[in-house]
Structures are given as structure tokens and as C-alpha cells.
Design a protein that fits this description.
about 425 residues, 8-stranded mixed sheet, 19 helices, flat, binds guanosine-5'-triphosphate, binds magnesium ion
């Protein structure tokens, strides 16, 4: 009997085991269903593309970018309309602010180039003033007395020096020159005031005829060559008149410039009348529809009245070939001749009613103060300055840049730093 009971018990145990095992099997699929989800990934991949669609929204800002770029590009005019919008975005977002800050840069560059050409004058003028002012905590009348010697030494001239000092003394008496900075400022203001001579309102025409005059060797022919180079480079048609018929070499010198620049040179026979050459050149330049006619003339001493009469006649003759011409008469002055140049200038002005002065060889003198004297005493504007013998060594005169180059302190300190 025991045996059948044991069998029953064992049977029950087995049945129970089977039951539990069955239950576990039922439970297992639920847990494995999680892993089954892994196998069911393809189903989950469906939402993934949905997530990628939003990613397509990331390119969307790219599309929006050109819209953002557009207003920026209007600030920087030239480059922005280029096709690759993606390139535009980064490059524009950066320069937007600096562009405005860099605006004065070209002027700084001009000043530093000008300063190189005026190096000798800066040493003779600015450096001496700097030595005089530096370390002075208080500006007193004695400093102004010492300034007088420096200004005269730099060829500013007696009259101009006195006018500058008078104004500075006046400021000092009003306690407006408290320190060195104020004195530099006042000096620059005075220089700017003197140099700002308005250009006379003359007539103009096509061609714009400019008669170049001056004593021997001041740089008339060279300046004509430089001007022709500049204007030709600007796309203007330039014609040159070889009005110096006194020396065959003078005609050749102009022809060399003409060839180099690509400008026609109108010349007469050896010893021809300069007026006749100028007349013919004016007629031909009109026919050729030139933009500029530059008339070279022989150097002449301002003290020789027959030569001064001759140049007056040349001027009149040009007017017969073209009404209103010459539109300008420029006196070329050699800056190294100093105060002597002022006497020349006064006499040329009286004879020819000058409309401008070209001051050459400023690179070779420590006496750049002559520019102030020319403007102050003659009341004729300086139009160009020569800073060397090469074609590119000519600069249109700009008061602000010139004052900064000659008397600017800040840049000097920056250089030293
Ligand atoms: N350093 C320097 N030399 C200059 C400048 N301008 C002209 N020269 C030189 O001055 C010399 C005389 O120049 P020209 O152009 O022949 O002078 P010019 O007034 O025509 O002379 P004439 O026809 O004889 O009256 C030349 O050696 C030029 O190279 C200048 O700005 N700086
Ligand atoms: Mg000459």
C-alpha cells in the first residue's frame, strides 16, 4: 500500500512541477517580448524617419539664412549677392560690426604713407616740438617763445609763425592750453586753419587745360608725367603739350613720359614759339576729346620780365584756341628752396593769377613748414605734393591727412610702442 501512496505523492509533485513549469513558460513570453521588441525594430524604425523629418528643419534655417543675410549684405555693398548663400552667412555675420569700425582705416594708411614721405620734415619739425613740449606739466609763455625758433627753422615763415603764436598766446591767456595735449591740439587746429585755402571756382571744359609754370628745375615736367600717370590710370585721356621749346632735351623728356603713360605729346619744331605749340595742342586735344591737356613750359626766373611776359602770352594764346582755357594755372615750387620760393610764388601769382601750387621735393627737406607759409602768405591752395622722383610719388593735397602726418601725435606714439 505504501508504494502506491508514494507513487501518488510523486505523481502529485510531478504534476505540480509540470504546472509551475507551464506557468513559467507563460510568463516568459512577456519578458522576452521586451527582447522581441528588439527584433521588432523595423517597426520602431518607422518613428525614426519621423525624427529625421524634424532634422530636415535644420536645413530649413539654411534656407532662412539668405533672408538673414540680405539685410546684412546691404551694409556691405559689393560681395554679398554672390550665389553660395551658405558662404555668405558666416562671412557676413563676422564682418558686420568690424566693417564700421574699420571705416577710418584707409585714412590711417594714407597718413602713414604720407608720413614716410615727410619723414625728414617730421624730424625737423614735429620731433623738435615734441622734445620741447614733453615733460612740461604746465604750458607757459616761455615754451611759446621757444616754439618760435622751431617754426621759423621749419620754414613756416615769419608772418605765419607770428600769426600762429599770437593765437596760441591768446588761448594761453584764456587758460585754454592747460597741458601738452591741449597745446598739440591747438597747433593742429591752427595748421588746419591755415592750410584750408579754398580752390578758386574756375571754369572747366573738355579738355580741362592746366598750364604748368615755375622757375628752372623745380619739377614741372616730372609733375606733368606724374599727373598724366595718375589720370591715365583713372581711365582719362591725357594729352601733353611740349611748351618748353627752349631746350630739345625738354621735349624728349616729355616724350619719354608720354610713351610711358600712353599719352599723346604735341610738340613743335626746335625753337618754335611756345604759344604756337600750346595753341596747336589745345586744338588737337579738343579734337581728340581728351579729358586733360597738361601744358609744359620752360623754367623761367620770376625776375626776368621778358620771360614773364612770354608766359602771359602763352596763357592768352591757349584762351584763343579754347574759350575759358587754361582752366587752371599751377605754379610748381621746389620745397627745398624755402622762403625764396615764396618770393617766386608772389611774382608768378601777380603775373598769372594762379589757381594752385604743386609743392615738389618735400621728401628732400626737413622744412615742410613751407606748406603753411605758401597757403598763408599766397592764399593759393596747394593741390599736389611731390614726395619723390617716381611716377607714384605724387599726392593730392589733403589738409587733414597732411596735418596728421606732420603733427599727429597719436600715431607717432603708436609707432614707438
Ligand atoms: N626728390 C624729388 N625729386 C623730384 C621731385 N619732383 C621732381 N624731382 C626731380 O627734380 C629734377 C628736375 O625735375 P624736372 O621735372 O626736370 O624740372 P623742371 O621744372 O621741368 O625743369 P626745367 O624744365 O629745367 O625748368 C629731376 O631730377 C626730377 O626727378 C620730387 O617730388 N622729389
Ligand atoms: Mg621741364
Amino acid at each position: 500500500m505504501e508504494n502506491p501512496a508514494i507513487i501518488v505523492v510523486v505523481g502529485l509533485i510531478v504534476a505540480a512541477l509540470v504546472y509551475f513549469v507551464f506557468l513559467k513558460k507563460k510568463a516568459l513570453p512577456e519578458t522576452t517580448s521586451t527582447t522581441a521588441k528588439d527584433t521588432a525594430r523595423p517597426e520602431r524604425k518607422e518613428p525614426e524617419p519621423v525624427q529625421r523629418e524634424p532634422k530636415k528643419e535644420t536645413p530649413a534655417p539654411e534656407k532662412a539664412a539668405p533672408e538673414k543675410a540680405a539685410p546684412v549684405s546691404s551694409k556691405k555693398p559689393a560681395p554679398p549677392e554672390s550665389l553660395p548663400s551658405t558662404d555668405v552667412v558666416p562671412s557676413e555675420s563676422e564682418p558686420e560690426i568690424p566693417a564700421e569700425e574699420e571705416a577710418p582705416a584707409p585714412s590711417k594708411k594714407d597718413v602713414s604713407e604720407l608720413r614716410k614721405g615727410l619723414a625728414a620734415s617730421r624730424t625737423g619739425f614735429f620731433s623738435k616740438l615734441k622734445a620741447l613740449f614733453s615733460g612740461k606739466k604746465e604750458i607757459d609763455p616761455a615754451i611759446l617763445e621757444e616754439m618760435e625758433a622751431v617754426l621759423l627753422g621749419a620754414d613756416v615763415g615769419v608772418k605765419t609763425t607770428q600769426s600762429i603764436l599770437e593765437r596760441l598766446r591768446d588761448k594761453l591767456s584764456k587758460n585754454e592750453l592747460a597741458d601738452e595735449d591741449a597745446l598739440w591740439r591747438a597747433l593742429r587746429v591752427e595748421a588746419s586753419r591755415i592750410l584750408s585755402v579754398p580752390s578758386p571756382k574756375g571754369s572747366t571744359g573738355t579738355p580741362h587745360v592746366i598750364l604748368m609754370v615755375g622757375v628752372n628745375g623745380v619739377g614741372k615736367t616730372t609733375t606733368i608725367g606724374k599727373l598724366a600717370t595718375k589720370w591715365h590710370g583713372d581711365g582719362k585721356k591725357v594729352v601733353l603739350a611740349a611748351g618748353d621749346t627752349f631746350r630739345a632735351a625738354a621735349v624728349q623728356q616729355l616724350e619719354v613720359w608720354g610713351k610711358r603713360v600712353g599719352a599723346d605729346v604735341i610738340k613743335g619744331k626746335d625753337g618754335a614759339d611756345p604759344g604756337a605749340v600750346a595753341f596747336e595742342a589745345t586744338t588737337k586735344a579738343q579734337e581728340a576729346k581728351a579729358d586733360y591737356l597738361l601744358v609744359d613750359t620752360a623754367g623761367r626766373l620770376h625776375t626776368k620780365s621778358p620771360l614773364m611776359d612770354e608766359i602771359k602770352k602763352v596763357k592768352r594764346t591757349i584762351g584763343k584756341a579754347m574759350e575759358g582755357a587754361p582752366h587752371e594755372t599751377w605754379l610748381v615750387l621746389d620745397a627745398t628752396t624755402g622762403q625764396n620760393g615764396l618770393t617766386q610764388a608772389a611774382m608768378f601769382k601777380e603775373a598769372l593769377d594762379l589757381s594752385g601750387v604743386v609743392l615738389t621735393k618735400l621728401d628732400g627737406t626737413a622744412k615742410g613748414g613751407i606748406v603753411l607759409a605758401v597757403c598763408d602768405e599766397l592764399n593759393v591752395p596747394v593741390r599736389y605734393i611731390g614726395l619723390g622722383e617716381r611716377a607714384e610719388d605724387l599726392r593730392e593735397f589733403n589738409t587733414v591727412d597732411f596735418v596728421e602726418a606732420l603733427l599727429g601725435r597719436d600715431a607717432d606714439e603708436a609707432e614707438a610702442a
